[in-house]
Design goal:
Elements lengths: L4 E6 L11 H15 L10 E8 L4 H4 L4 E8 L6 E10 L2 E7 L14 H22 L5 E5 H14 L10 E6 L10 H6 L18 H8 L2 E4 L2 H6 L10 H6 L4 E3 L26 H15 L8 E9 L5 H7 L8 E9 L1 H13 L4 E4 L4 H10 L2 E4 L9 H7 L3 E5 L2 H6 L12 E3 L4 H15 L2 H13 L5 H17 L1
Parallel strand pairs: 1-2, 1-6, 2-5, 6-7, 7-8, 8-9, 10-11, 10-13, 11-12, 13-14, 14-15
Antiparallel strand pairs: 3-4, 4-5
Helix pairs in contact: 3-4, 4-6, 9-12, 10-15, 13-16
The structure holds adenosine-5'-diphosphate (ADP).
Amino acid sequence: MSKTLRVLYMAAEADPFVKVGGLGDVAGSLPGALRRLPAAGQSHPDVDIRLILPLYPGIRDRFPAIEPLAQVAVSHASGPMIAEAFQLDLDGLIVYLIAGPPISDEGPVYSGDPIIDGNKFIFFSLASLELMRHLKWRPDILHANDWHTAPAVYWIHTNKRKDAFFSKTATILQVHNLPYLGQDTQDAMGAFGLVPARGSTLPHWAQHLPLPLGLLAADRILTVSPGYAEEMLTPEFGSGLDEYLRSQRSRIGGILNGIEPSDWDPATDQDLYEKYSAKDLTRRLENKHALQAELGLALDQNAFLLGMVTRMVHQKGVDMVLEAIPLLNGLNWHCVILGTGERPLEAASRRLQEQFPDRMRAEIRYDGALSRRIYAGSDALLIPSRYEPCGLTQMIAMRYGSVPIARATGGLRDTIPDYSVQKDSTGFLFDGDDGAAVAEAVRRAAQVFGDKRRWRALQRRGMKKDFSWDHSARRYQELYAALAETN
Ligand code: ADP
């Protein structure tokens, strides 16, 4: 009998508690998938995985079953800071939540202010470790995600030799988005006792930043797709860390994200006008018409309805779509962009709606229910990301029968076989990074859309693809086992 592995999974966001983007989806579904996975011998042990996240204001009201658990102190230059820990059993998954002065801010999860965010996430990272010590729950693996929880990895690295409790804990730092390094948080790092790694092999400018320090410290560096694990090593995508990362190749790997099939299922989705499956795509048409009606567009079956669901940031190429739209003359199209983020992109989207009042809609907000109706009602989903570590919207789109039109990068390239490969294709990929490239890809897709039989086949292939966690969760299980073995 192999022993049960203890894994602490740390994240700044996790569905259903709080979700801003894909990290929320992943942290909200992977731990559950891993917990349900049966053991299969030494290389696939039972995993007792527990999730820990900040208790942002508002969460307790929505989850009244959350119970106080303990108080722990985190060292700080100004004196010990008290963290209050809470616990919830979420369908069998133990979830710890950490509250405390730096987390009580009413603002958004990521305020964009490095002082607020630095204090919040470094406090959360170190309080999480103190809670484990208090509970005497010694993790075999600490699985951190992005810069927000990288400080915990670095703390273990620098204290492991003298700290009996964490001396056998192996660490994973998973990168969901490399350019977010935790810039300008050095004061908070210092105040919480995390000293720069002077003299290390990290580039000098990175020796005090949370994500690079986590990369330096982690036993294993993971990304969320094999494609991005390679791209991260190049100057174009390496955020200045590519040379360092190339020298660390043996520690780096990529495991593709999955989605939770029961969370994203057009046959059961309560937010849709009409539920449907790959077998009855005619019912899907009801969703297209209802979406057109909801948006105040003409109920036109033949209009090629393009959707986009995105954080409005440069990475996601919203500007390319805005440039592409005026180039679609001669085509019968509708377009809806649902997103929020950078003000200039929001404003430019609104202007385009004014320019094309009969065709274009800019829905500037975060709206989970509308996102689902867009996946179900659009013909195609635009995903022209400049880089995409994995991307979930393409998987959700395919599952809902909306055909992705995406840039051939990172996880998008890993998950969408282009139409040119025919038999297995589920979408359209393009290389360029401007409006003309997007417009050309839309025209290529629109041609196929004109042939209902071929379009349906494309939709069905996407809908039948398995994006569940099953395969990837096994890979995590293997990795945890291998890491625990060597530690
Ligand atoms: P990222 O993590 O970079 O934002 P992903 O494609 O991995 O991108 O995940 C995005 C997730 O966030 C998807 O579940 C998508 O549906 C959701 N999402 C993004 N923007 C919005 C929005 N404005 N309203 C509702 N859901 C959104």
